[in-house]
TrEMBL record:
Keywords: Membrane, Transmembrane, Transmembrane helix
Domain of life, source organism: Eukaryota
A Pfam family of this chain: Exo_endo_phos2
GO molecular function: inositol-polyphosphate 5-phosphatase activity; phosphatidylinositol-4,5-bisphosphate 5-phosphatase activity
Gene3D superfamilies: Endonuclease/exonuclease/phosphatase
Name of this chain's protein: Inositol polyphosphate-related phosphatase domain-containing protein
InterPro entries in the cross-refs: Endo/exonu/phosph_ase_sf, INPP5E, IPPc
Keyword Iron part of the UniProt annotation: no
């Protein structure tokens, strides 16, 4: 883990603080709790960890400003494994969805097949992820611009 996360999360040239921080990592955190504590320490007491989702080596955290927590719905999660052997969770995706002030959000962190010559395999991983993520289930979809999932 880096010694300081301030430059990453709180750049000095920012003139305001964010309402939400959604941080996704792949193969980077040996101790999930230590990572979440470090993020919390960096963001300070005005933020709370609303939700944390894990799928193998994938991790997704949702931090929200403490005073705005009442305007966020319950969070849903889904995972997809793109490897043939599903016990090895090094490739795939983890997603969370929720509404915030009546607007629906979906965040995905993914780790697909690596290698310069494996673009086709990555596209297959992407397509499998989009088809298999069943979100939102309960969270209302507020998107007024409906599009075809194939797009």
């Amino acid at each position: 883990l880096p010694d300081k996360l301030d430059d990453f999360l709180l750049p000095c040239d920012s003139q305001y603080i964010q309402d939400l921080y959604i941080i996704g990592t792949q193969e980077g955190i040996p101790d999930r709790r230590e990572w979440e504590i470090r993020l919390q320490e960096t963001l300070g007491p005005h933020f709370v960890l609303l939700y944390s989702a894990v799928h193998g080596v994938l991790h997704l955290s949702l931090f929200i400003r403490r005073d705005l927590i009442w305007f966020c719905s319950e969070v849903e999660q889904a995972t997809v494994t793109t490897r043939i052997v599903s016990q090895i969770k090094t490739k795939g995706a983890v997603a969370i969805s929720f509404t915030f002030f009546g607007t629906s959000f979906l965040f995905i962190t993914s780790h697909f097949t690596s290698g310069q010559g494996k673009v086709y395999e990555r596209m297959l991983d992407y397509n499998k992820t989009i088809e298999a993520l069943a979100l939102p289930r309960v969270v209302p979809d507020t998107n007024i611009y409906k599009s075809d999932p194939c797009e």
